[in-house]
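Practice problem 4.
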């Protein structure tokens, strides 16, 4: 009787071990890859994904869909590297380790830096409006969209080390006059600070907030008020 019980226990143990091994062998691993613009959060539909294993062998090639995503079954349990390549963006590589049945890889795509085209320096005393300079609403905080234009101005100043400029800030006539002057001055100083961080000497820069004193269009419509909210520079 004892022998029968022992044999039965061994049989059960062997069956459980075999079942566990079978489940381990049949376990599947998937990867979901997502690529989106680091700032706008828009999907990068041109992204191509390349998955390599620990030996450097490429095991998967995937293309992002309309949502910037791709998914596939991985060959097996191992460590992988996922490379993301998209035109106009920096190439990024992320690891996939400690596999789970579902593995998510998210790429925050960074636009590739283009060669900066410096702004043309105008004649002395002529005001030039800087394009695409944006601030947070009712705030002197520069938004990231302003970077290309300010980088172009910085490059122009680097290439023309003898010139000095005055940065002028303007608002529309909505709200309190004194507060508008203060806001425009703070925005000028934000631009000045940005240029200094780019290597422009402080002595070459002046800033003046003009508030609503110098409109370039009547403040009779939102479109005109938008034109009046601007940042200019003048060669001294």
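Answer key:
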């Amino acid at each position: 009787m004892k022998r029968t019980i022992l044999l039965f226990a061994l049989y059960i143990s062997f069956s459980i071990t075999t079942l566990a091994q079978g489940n381990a062998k049949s376990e599947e691993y998937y990867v979901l890859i997502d690529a989106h613009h680091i700032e706008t959060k828009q999907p990068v539909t041109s992204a191509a994904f390349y998955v390599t294993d620990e030996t450097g062998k490429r095991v998967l090639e995937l293309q992002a869909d309309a949502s910037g995503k791709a998914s596939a079954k991985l060959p097996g349990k191992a460590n992988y590297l996922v490379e993301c390549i998209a035109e106009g963006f920096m190439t990024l590589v992320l690891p996939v380790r400690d596999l789970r049945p579902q593995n998510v890889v998210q790429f925050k795509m960074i636009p590739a830096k283009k060669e900066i085209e410096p702004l043309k320096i105008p004649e002395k005393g002529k005001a030039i409006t800087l394009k695409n300079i944006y601030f947070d609403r009712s705030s002197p905080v520069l938004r990231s969209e302003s970077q290309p234009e300010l980088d172009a101005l910085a490059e122009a100043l680097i290439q023309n080390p003898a010139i000095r400029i005055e940065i002028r800030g303007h608002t529309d006539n909505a709200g309190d006059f004194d507060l508008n002057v203060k806001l425009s001055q703070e925005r000028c100083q934000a631009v000045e600070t940005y240029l200094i961080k780019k290597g422009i000497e402080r002595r070459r820069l002046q800033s003046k907030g003009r508030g609503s004193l110098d409109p370039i269009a009547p403040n009779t419509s939102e479109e005109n008020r938008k034109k009046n909210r601007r940042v200019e520079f003048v060669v001294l």
